Amino acid sequence: MNQGNIFLTKEGRTRLEREFAELLRLKVFKTSGESPRIFHSEDINPEFLAFQEDMDLLDARIIELEAILKGAQLIKPPPKDQQNLISLGAKVMIEIDGEEDEFEIIGSLEASPSLGKISNECPVGKNLLGHKVGDEVIVGTNPKIVYKIKKVKY
Q1: 103 forms bridges with which residues in the sheet?
Q2: What are the residues whose beta carbons fall under 8 Å from the beta carbon of 143, sequence distance 6 or more?
Q3: Dihedral of CA 22/28/31/33: which sign?
Q4: What pLDDT shows up at residue 46?
Q5: Mean of the per-residue pLDDT values for the chain?
Q6: What domains are there in the chain, each with its CATH number?
């Protein structure tokens, strides 16, 4: 996973910290009990293989979360004098062909378009960054979609 620019909301960071703590507790619980034996008669025990696979997946997720939490930047609202421009954390109301829509621009790790949260790396999010109310932003080439920015809030 590319750890270059990971941006998290405060809520997203809290959610990942909780998951990380819970997985660490689960690992301690799983390893403190009796694990299946590697051999069952002359064959490798399938219960042991399943246990080992579960532990490998658990360890991989713990390592991934640790790296994310270590390198992530918290999304903070810009200073008051720059809140007219769209940046990470902005809630943006736009108009497309007379229809209005609203979404929040956040980091790709928390993006969920169905919940109105788009990534700063997706074409729409990337193109809206740095613009202000009244601007028209064209996204795409065929077809071109014109986004008219109606409102920006943090």
Answers
A1: 92
A2: none
A3: negative
A4: 84
A5: 91
A6: 7-74 (1.10.287), 80-153 (3.10.50.30)
